[in-house]
Amino acid sequence: MKPLWGRMTAHQTICHLIDSFLVPMGAKAVSMATSPMQRTVVKFLALNAPVKWPAGVKTRPEVERGAGGTAPGEFGSDRRSLIAAVERFAAANRDFEWPLHPVFGYGVRPT
Q1: Any idea what the Cα angle at residue 87 is, between residues 11 and 98, rounded to 5°?
Q2: pLDDT digits (tens, 9 = 90+) for 94-108
Q3: In the structure, how many helices (H) and strands (E) does the chain have?
Q4: What is the C-alpha to C-alpha distance for residues 96 and 13, in angstroms, rounded to an integer?
Q5: What integer pLDDT is reported at residue 7 of this predicted model?
Q6: What Å distances lie between residue 53 and 12, 34, 46, 47, 111, CA to CA?
Q7: Is 108 exposed, middle or buried (0-12, 13-18, 19+ CB in 10 A)?
Q8: Which of 34, 85, 97, 111 is most buried, judging by how many CB atoms fall within 10 Å of its CB?
Q9: DSSP states along 13-38
């Protein structure tokens, strides 16, 4: 089956999502966007434009498949890790502080 979005398999997507939840919980470090274009134009469009996020937009290298992202291991274990990350992220009493977003910076902190 041809993917409708991106190039990842379901298992690779699970690992990407784990990494993506670990970043805002401070459990996985990512580099900050350094380009003025990323910090201004991309930030403005992402937060204000009433359009669907386009396919192919690069993510931070530390969570990118094949770069710094977590490689798939055993499917069931990775699935359980994702569920645990989502539950921790969504818990009413969180046990982590929100770090700065690598692109959006100080302006985007959940309430």
Answers
A1: 100
A2: 888 777 777 777 644
A3: 4, 0
A4: 24
A5: 77
A6: 20, 21, 8, 10, 23
A7: middle
A8: 85
A9: HHHHHHHHHHTTTTSS--PPP--HHI
**Nearest residue to 110 via CA among 80, 95, 89, 87:** 89
Query: Residue 54 gets which letter from DSSP?
Result: P
Could you tell me the residue ranges of all domains in the chain?
Answer: 10-51+59-90
Q: What is the mean pLDDT of the chain?
A: 79
Residue type for 83, please? I
The residues near 60 (Cβ < 8 Å, ≥ 6 apart) are: 23, 30, 31, 33, 102
pLDDT in tens, 44-73: 877 788 877 767 767 776 777 767 778 889
Decide if 5 contacts 55 (C-beta within 8 A): yes
Task: State which amino acid sits at residue 75.
Answer: F
Looking at residue 84, its pLDDT comes to 96
Residue 97 in tokens: 């502080």
